[in-house]
Specification:
homodimer, about 900 residues, eight-stranded parallel beta barrel
Chain lengths: ~900, ~900
Amino acid sequence: MKKYVYSFGGGKADGNESMKNLLGGKGANLAEMAGHKDLKLPVPPGFTLTTEVCTYYFKNKGKYPSGLINEVENALKKVEKLMKRKFGDPENPLLVSVRSGARKSMPGMMDTILNVGLTEKTIPGLINQSGGNERFVYDAYRRLIMMYADVVMEKAEGIEPEKEDMAIRKQLEKIMDGIKKEKGYSSDTDLKAEDLKILADKFKEKIKEVLGKEFPDKPEDQLWGSIGAVFNSWNGKRAVSYRRIENIPDEWGTACNVQTMVFGNMGNDSATGVAFTRNPGNGENDFYGEYLINAQGEDVVAGIRTPAPINQYSQSEHNKDLSTLQQIMPDVYNQLVDIRNRLEKHYKDMQDIEFTIEKGSLFMLQCRTGKRNGVAAVKMAVDMVEEVLIKKEDAVIRVSSSQLNELLHPEIDPKTEIHLKPIAKGLPAGPGAATGQIVFTAEQAVESVKQGKQVILVREETSPEDVEGMRAASAILTARGGMTSHAALVARGWGKCCIVGCGALSIDIDKKEVYIDGKILKEGDWLTLNGTKGNVYEGKLPMMNASESNLLLNEYLKICGAIKKLGVRTNADTPEDAYKAKQFGAEGIGLFRTEHMFYGKGSDEPLFILRQMIISSTPEERKKAIDKLFPYVKKDIKETIAAMDGFPVVIRLLDPPLHEFVPKEEEKLVQLAKELNITMEELKERAESIHESNPMMGHRGVRLGITYPEVTEMQVRAIFESSAELLKEGKKPYPEIMIPVVCDVKELLNQKEIVDRVYKETLQKYDLKEIKYMYGTMIEIPRAAFVADQLATVSEFFSYGTNDMTQMGFGFSRDDIGAFLPDYIEKGILKNDPFQTIDIIGVGEIIKLGIEKGRKTRKNLEVGICGEHGGDSDSVKFCNKVGMNYVSCSPYRVPIAIHAAAQAIVEEKQQINIKPKKVRKIRK
Amino acid sequence: MKKYVYSFGGGKADGNESMKNLLGGKGANLAEMAGHKDLKLPVPPGFTLTTEVCTYYFKNKGKYPSGLINEVENALKKVEKLMKRKFGDPENPLLVSVRSGARKSMPGMMDTILNVGLTEKTIPGLINQSGGNERFVYDAYRRLIMMYADVVMEKAEGIEPEKEDMAIRKQLEKIMDGIKKEKGYSSDTDLKAEDLKILADKFKEKIKEVLGKEFPDKPEDQLWGSIGAVFNSWNGKRAVSYRRIENIPDEWGTACNVQTMVFGNMGNDSATGVAFTRNPGNGENDFYGEYLINAQGEDVVAGIRTPAPINQYSQSEHNKDLSTLQQIMPDVYNQLVDIRNRLEKHYKDMQDIEFTIEKGSLFMLQCRTGKRNGVAAVKMAVDMVEEVLIKKEDAVIRVSSSQLNELLHPEIDPKTEIHLKPIAKGLPAGPGAATGQIVFTAEQAVESVKQGKQVILVREETSPEDVEGMRAASAILTARGGMTSHAALVARGWGKCCIVGCGALSIDIDKKEVYIDGKILKEGDWLTLNGTKGNVYEGKLPMMNASESNLLLNEYLKICGAIKKLGVRTNADTPEDAYKAKQFGAEGIGLFRTEHMFYGKGSDEPLFILRQMIISSTPEERKKAIDKLFPYVKKDIKETIAAMDGFPVVIRLLDPPLHEFVPKEEEKLVQLAKELNITMEELKERAESIHESNPMMGHRGVRLGITYPEVTEMQVRAIFESSAELLKEGKKPYPEIMIPVVCDVKELLNQKEIVDRVYKETLQKYDLKEIKYMYGTMIEIPRAAFVADQLATVSEFFSYGTNDMTQMGFGFSRDDIGAFLPDYIEKGILKNDPFQTIDIIGVGEIIKLGIEKGRKTRKNLEVGICGEHGGDSDSVKFCNKVGMNYVSCSPYRVPIAIHAAAQAIVEEKQQINIKPKKVRKIRK
């Protein structure tokens, strides 16, 4: 026969931690604490009705499985025996709590009833147990009545009051307020035993009047009413909608835990508290917790009294004058420390525990894996590996991607932020926080920073011309653009705080004002941004710096590095970026964007020449500009390859549509016209002629290389000549030449002719026999994946440009999604922003197709990814799964990628282990 | 032993027509004419060295297969026997021609040597044969020497003269010119026998001097020299590059035909001519040809003498005074008519024949399927089916798509066009030709046409605001844009002549001038466009109208309709378009674009309201505009569904990005601001806020429907209410509601809620039980194909939007490809404009994937295509192959689609028939 009720307590338990599906999280942990041979903790005895009771109950329209009543009665008898009390006994009554507990925690979504078993008859017994504390008992009684009326008699019966203030709970509260007013009391605690007695009577009258039923005075009725209410709360409105959001299946059901009541408010020898087995704020290996003398759990939550520290490690500014538990109850404290040590050893992770001390006796009420911040998570993981408590694989899984991210960026002090309302919200484009004074132009940003100010650049949107100002500013805030808009890409590349697409901003650049939420902010006013959340705050908020020393991070990354198989490279456009990424553990550059060298370099010269090249109308004009540009390009490439000495450097040839480089300011246009010796009219005409309707799908990438082979040649020559010079200097250059925006193998063949020729010329010029390099392509156009087998005949490597692939795959212009993507996420049409996390079923399939086809032609094809997704944890795992060789991301995402790559290995291994065994076929 | 030489002549032949791969096209046809039992035509006897000789020759560095010399000798003996002449015989010599002949015709790319066998010794014999015509013989001799020196002694030996005028041919021509000058002759024909004798000697001296070798005087040397030269010419520069272009494999090789010389220039009883078995200009079943008395083939080509008509049917303005062959040689003519009849019966197609009459004897030199224009092709196909000469399947294959196209559009008189050079070239966006006076604005176009003028609208590019002017103009010419730019799409939809992306234009709209090719053209100047070729001509050229009566076309389409299986629908936005397409045989509307109703309708009212709707900033403003718009939308939809009574009408909900509808002219903006009661500043701000960087991938299609559900609702209501009213009127409406730009099934589910609700409301309002309709999606975003299995759970039909799919698949913005696509085509990177013909290996694979996935979920899923490709012949065949249910195209492409759909069936059947038989496995 199926077992529906699992007992625990007295050093024994029918269940254990592994039975979460059947007993729920709470029930399984109670059983584990109570019954495991290494623990046998003082858990108040009780029993758990399984989730199967719940599913049966709903399948059978509120009927319980046969035999359940018997099982509950037997379990209750066990508890009575252990507690030496009897349920409903007037002399020595047993009281119980009845709580829900699903597989997955659904905090506050389901119901609880305490003090079940307290009746007119058992009240004297409880007074006796409490040493004559009448007030305590009548307070417990009125609480039971309120809770029961609300949860069991109203909600569980499906009664919906017409108005909110007609709910039974509200009506009872009104009565209580009336008495308080009458007596001139300010707080509930002022109510005396007499008052509470009267209150209980009035409550019962009201209940009869409103709900037409008596409040039950039989303990059994209370128990079964509570059990039914707990099961019914699984299908309560809040619980159902929570499950929708969290994707929890309806058919799981909840368990129901019936447990002996213990009271921390039975006097000064009683207390209640919460503790963490290690410090959840910094990860140090110290027992950390708070407690309140003569109090219940809800008093700790209510925050009326300041909890005291359990020991010296738990002291803070607020509570340093209060006595520690260690000081006032040294025996109980030592007992708790012993429990803490056993719990850590047993669970091999930091635990969050709840305890109650009833008249000097310690009881454990809850135990679960504790939440922690990023630094703490990493610190604990590293320490526990050192303590040989966990394996490296565990350490990899133990830290989440967002926790690791916290180590990389400053944050607003959470104690301050929690109390504030943002004045606007945007897309969290660059993580971390920053505070600064508003400026509206890139020039002003540079200027202000020179004057020693800290500024936030506020723009409609940014363009490459703003780059110097963006570099100078502490953070960037834009009214438009998506997660991969110019501002977002640039900021993320630098690890800079940035919020984009903040639609609430209305900028008047002439008046130097921005209107947000009805407020007018002027240049120089302070703003604080939380770029991790996308929150904009008014004023200057206190910041918490990310741990300056990266020692901890590096130690953790070493652990991850030992596990991962996927290579991690960086997207870097300058030698500085390259060095930074190398420190984090990058194994090469996966994307060097030639065009990025033209911006934010102090000197305008190369950008100016580039513009000359672009605006040229004859091959001669163009050649002139290209020749002037060559030394700049070569210098930058050489320095970057040198910085990555011995590691590969993927250099992407000129990619963006030309018109992106045409200056917008009159002044620069005049200068350009002058240099080219043409009229402004002519210049504007030429600029107009390269304007495009949809530049993302226009004349860019290899298409430029095909129409202007001389531009390809210049870049290729810079690559080979700098490599040749580095070879002569004894370095180990390893460039990979990457052709962007390719859709057909003939494009690759066309450009390869130039590469082959320049390669030969360079060998001759430098008298070399060989320069090691690879020739390959970006895969960012859907068609490229379909013809990948052909591409791989020429291409020695593929690098997925997932930004563009997502643009083309979805038909989403990343600069324009602000108009509809928020609606898409809100209405649940898309789960994630596909520019953040690879869309596995669509774009992911395109990627897989390309890899399969490519490797069919070229078995050892090197495959990587260089889009923004290379720094997204879920996307990195996808890349690992589909067999890429490496991911590449901006320097500040390298740790995230290394970590995700390691997690991918561990998770894949776990999945293999939990693969269901083959089911034996049944013969007919 | 392998047979290398195939004889023909004397009513016999070793080969036949089916052996083109071995004997080449010419050799196979000569064999067929000479040897087939139904023909046995008077073909001058000869023999063919197979293509295998050629491939052997190249594989073995110029060596022939053993036994070849013997085979040639034997074949030659046969010819000698038949001709009763002997090769090299002084008394009665046999002369031969030596010609190339590959599998596929490579006109003029390889070499020919005539009069081989003429030597010092055989000259008297030939004089004797010719009845003492010394001049004829010496002229033949000097021709042989010139040809032989050029082709055999110089080119085939691989000698490359330093300068062009040092080539032996040029040097010999110089000598001849010298003699003519000396004697005061103006023409070659003035040269007398004596002169030619001297010339021959001088030629030989020069050859010795320049090439260091004697001109061979032995017939065998001449023959083998010529054979080797013919084979070598397979690898000549011209032939090789021609093969590259035409994709002819190098390993095919050429055959070599050695054939008895016959002479049409032996006197007035000799002649030469060409003829077609039917009139190639109009297809009438009349024998049609021209001939020249006492002349050789090359004289006809040279065009010095006007050829005479062979009969009354061949008379024209130019030759009507000349005697017909029928008149002057009635016996030979009758013999020719008899041959003509037998050839048609045998080949079952119109033949192009060459004949020579030598001293009253008729010889057939060539016979091949004759080229014809569009009208003729269709006429012949229809006639031959009626004559039971061919089957319907043959008639379908016999006409090419471009020939059929000729019937649909006017053309420039080809006799004029052939002599003119275009002043500019652009993309052939709208087929047919037109002539008119230049105007630069849509308003001016409308104005001028009202004044009775014929105009061509010349624009940088067009926008929806130009539509009325475009409709008024005879043709449209734009400087920018690709084959699917706005101008191209609109023009093609109307069957209007249009050239786009004509980069050579530089328009000064203020001065009302356009600069082309250094010329300045003003408003009112005449231009003529050939929209089929993309050519722009200056001035007013004479036009040929497409046959006004469509009787022939309709008869032909009936034949095609009986064969095809694929449905053909039309893209129509007005009832007029719908009627036109229905006349052509369209079986429904595959694409009705709601937004198109707003343009070119005479009244600005609906467009104005639409703009109000777009620029609304609150739901209330928007609701107001939508309510005003509703009656217009409903009226248009109702009329169109009514026009297609009984046939399905696919109605696409609003598709384009909103900003496309924002007016550009100040005047209209002012009016709009007034109506909305907002300032111009506010209006411009709102307009700016919907501007997008890449509108093609922006806020459009279903994305609009999701952010503005009220817009979807209005359109859906218009569809259901008009259908309901038509049902009440006894009509059979069958709307298919199509959601555009879909990338995820949740988009479809979101919109379906609106459709379901409005459907129920409409049934109630009109008291109906059912309105038949379908709900489906466009597949135009790559991701949609990947999730097609999910889409098909909701979508009852798929319609491929191949324009957008090509844009996203390639990452090609169709408005911007002008900057690089011409380069791509020219450099051979792409074979076709993928917006013209579906790119089978890329976009085609995406389409296939979508169909497979879709039908996996919904077996009877209706699949069609509504992009521009639906009117492209190759693309229609692709659609047939991948199992679509229908194609849809603009009304003027409907005949093309019907034809292509029929061809697809016949071609697929043929391919099944020619499938190679399974090769028997050889046991080890």
